[in-house]
Design brief:
Shape: globular
Number of helices: 7
Order of helices and strands: HEEHEEEEEHEHEEEEEEHHEEEHE
Strand order of the largest sheet: 6-7-13-11-12
Structural class: alpha+beta
CATH class of the largest domain: Alpha Beta
Strand content: 15-25%
């Protein structure tokens, strides 16, 4: 039986077992940086790790599709939405605590809150993440960063659920391979938080680096429009923006989705773009780059709800 036929019963059960919020048919456009996406059948904002465990265990027991979301900075959600339970971590699971030069950060904490916390406490190592949207959990999964530093550079351990979704376990840094926009050991896991090992740095220097990074992003990226950031991973020895520019695709539109005329590696929402329009542009860039240059572009954006 399709979940849409019994989602009210599902939501009712989760409301009884979850201390957080449970909503029906929540538009996911409200929870993605693209401002695009249809509704999730059930949308849960857990208040604590026990809520996460209870929701995931129930979904697993009854084979209900389930997906965790932070700020949705790197997601393209289909126009049809998500058939299943969407678990939103950023509302409650977002605390940041400090002990000396270590930050203990929950998965739903905003990256920019972490950057500012580090600056206030004279802790260096995260300032190059300034301006990167999203949460710590999402950043960990893809090893988010810039050419000047990645989140994996500071991680000392990651807290996640075991495979049975019954308890929290810790994965130490030496067991994790932080690669370019990929962390194999963290794929298909449920990340609840991490510890960041930082170093002492003068606040004025940290502020200067943060502001320099923000200015750099503003000068080169179309921050005035909703987007997911870089759509594709950078292929070896090439830059996506340059490849797109050489193809003459900057400014190309499909409805209100447009390949940015400021940076060819971005696809922006001019106002009323749909997921299908953005996907059309992604497919076009991939096809033309491969046809012209023989390079296969791998998406950095994650697709949600397209294969349901």
């Amino acid at each position: 039986m399709p979940i849409s036929e019994w989602k009210h019963d599902l939501a009712s059960h989760l409301q009884k077992t979850c201390a957080g919020d449970v909503l029906l048919d929540e538009p996911l456009a409200r929870h993605t940086w693209y401002r695009i996406g249809g509704p999730a059948d059930v949308f849960v904002s857990p208040k604590n790790s026990d809520d996460v465990i209870n929701v995931l265990a129930y979904c697993r027991a009854y084979q209900i599709p389930c997906f965790l979301i932070g700020e949705g900075a790197n997601l393209l959600v289909s126009d049809a939405g998500y058939r299943g339970v969407m678990v939103y971590l950023a509302r409650y699971l977002n605390t940041i605590t400090r002990q000396a030069q270590i930050l203990d950060v929950q998965a739903g904490a905003l990256l920019q809150e972490v950057v500012l916390t580090c600056e206030r406490h004279h802790l260096g190592g995260m300032e190059y993440m300034a301006g990167i949207p999203g949460t710590v959990g999402g950043a960990l999964i893809m090893n988010a960063g810039t050419d000047r530093g990645e989140i994996g550079d500071t991680v000392s351990e990651v807290s996640l659920l075991n495979e049975e979704y019954t308890q929290i376990v810790t994965m130490k840094r030496d067991a994790i391979s932080f690669e370019y926009r990929n962390v194999p050991q963290l794929q298909d896991t449920i990340i609840l938080g991490c510890k960041l090992l930082l170093h002492h740095e003068e606040e004025s220097r940290l502020r200067a680096r943060r502001l320099q990074q923000l200015q750099r992003r503003a000068a080169t990226q179309p921050l005035e429009y909703p987007s997911c950031g870089s759509v594709f991973k950078r292929p070896p020895h090439h830059y996506v923006g340059k490849l797109v520019q050489d193809l003459g695709l900057k400014g190309y539109r499909c409805g209100d989705a447009m390949i940015s005329d400021k940076h060819g590696g971005f696809i922006v929402n001019l106002g009323t773009a749909t997921a299908s329009q953005v996907k059309t542009l992604i497919d076009k860039i991939q096809a033309e780059v491969y046809q012209q240059f023989g390079i296969r572009l791998e998406p950095e954006v994650r697709f949600v709800g397209f294969d349901q």
